[in-house]
Amino acid sequence: MDGVTMDREQGRFALPVDSEHKATVFPIFSVAKPHMRAFHLSWLQFFSCFVSSFAAAPLLPIIRDNLNLTATSIGDAGIAAVSGAVFARLAMGAACDLVGPRVASAWITLLTAPAVYCSSIADSAMSFLLVRFFTGFSLATFVSTQFWMTSMFSPPIVGRANGLASGWGDLGGGATQLIMPLVYDLIIRFGVTNFTAWRMAFFIPAILQTMTTYAVMIFGQDTPDGNFRGLQKSGRKHRDKFSKVFFHGIRNHRAWLTALCYGYSFGVVLTMNNVISQFFYDRFDLKLYNAGVIAASFGLTNIFARPGGGVLSDILGRRFGMRGRLWGWWIFQTLGGVLCIFLGRAGSLGASVAMMLLLSIFVQASCGLTFGVVPFVSRRAMGVISGITGGGGNIGAVLIQVIFFKGSKFSTEVGITYMGIMVIVCTLPIALIYFPQWGGMIRGPKPNYTEEDYYLSEWSEEEQQQGFHETSMKFAENSRSERSRKIDSISSPTEIATATHV
């Protein structure tokens, strides 16, 4: 793109952009349309879904007495809350690729909102499990959040955009530990009985989720250039086939490795959101509100921890390329596993709180570091890759809770210790993630292999002749920042690619 054309394109947006019209800066307190508006809408929507999904956790001591829940039924409900999103996240990834993140996320939150309202009428262990299961589907908005940020922000800053959007959304897991006990106490003050007050409290997350859904539809935009439907109608965006998008997503082995490893960072986050309040309430004989405040601090570290992981990933990417991003991810997630072990073995309230806070910081940062890598796995099947990885986080949570926290096989503290060991072991496969154009943790890049070679491999010769691959070539050009300084001098067929592909 020549200078005159680039200047004209820059004038269309409030922020400086690259050749894909993705923002190259991240002014966090701006609401500039479309980039920063998409950022704020995405994290607010994800935040509301997190509050809905874990609204029951801080009120469990009251709910279990009302519904006569056993330890097994509580464990089953906790598993249901995170298992529902497994397939929803896979479907969300494909939906984002085909119809865009705005419509896809709005539909899932609108469809799951009735389950949140119905939480107030649960009258048995089974009905309680079902409302938690269907409410958990809304956690698929994590995928649309990551897809939306990758569509709006340039590769050199995509880590911080993903980290901040998902991190501030994850704050809902901590905020609900404060919000729900507070709402419950306020309702009690009006003379309402305990068993009625917890039911009325569920209307707050239900209304919040409904409001953010409409905000996304009214004020959001899929890409810097417009919504998917309008771009496809005008011919400015290729209407891809689901079968091909899905095929290129599932055949990329890097997606399955990121899913496995993410299962033991975000999987730990989801598990802790389910068990931490009850853990402190039962083990240290705390009041419900005090246990909720301590548990809330686990999620509230997302204000800086997960965004910090994304920022760190971008810094390591600029300094050491993709190999730096991978090493940072492995180190932080492994340390998170070590801290799990320390938390499980801590014997006092003070030590337990300290270990919990450190664990939260490292495991949340690992989530941010994960999605500093994921956007580069594929350009054509970006949504499917995000869905597979996000689904891996929920599968990890299900496995952890089934193995260590279901029933009375292990005490909660022993389960947390064993969870830490599993995290350390299941983080090792990060060493197997290898990009031929950039290398991996152990091996360097393949000689003379470029970004264009990697992303062009997702398109057939016939599709290339029709120009469907042009956005992938722009992404390849903008992702050269992932080269380490040692290979930055490798020549790229930029001029040849431009002449051939445009």
UniProtKB/TrEMBL annotation:
One GO term describing the cellular component: endomembrane system
BP GO terms, sorted: nitrate assimilation
One Pfam family hit: MFS_1
InterPro entries, per database record: MFS, MFS_dom, MFS_trans_sf, NO3_transporter, Sugar_transporter_CS
Biased composition (Polar residues): 489-502
Keywords, ordered alphabetically: Membrane, Nitrate assimilation, Transmembrane, Transmembrane helix, Transport
Family classification: Belongs to the major facilitator superfamily. Nitrate/nitrite porter (TC 2.A.1.8) family.
Name used for this protein in its record: Major facilitator superfamily (MFS) profile domain-containing protein
Natural source organism: Nepenthes gracilis
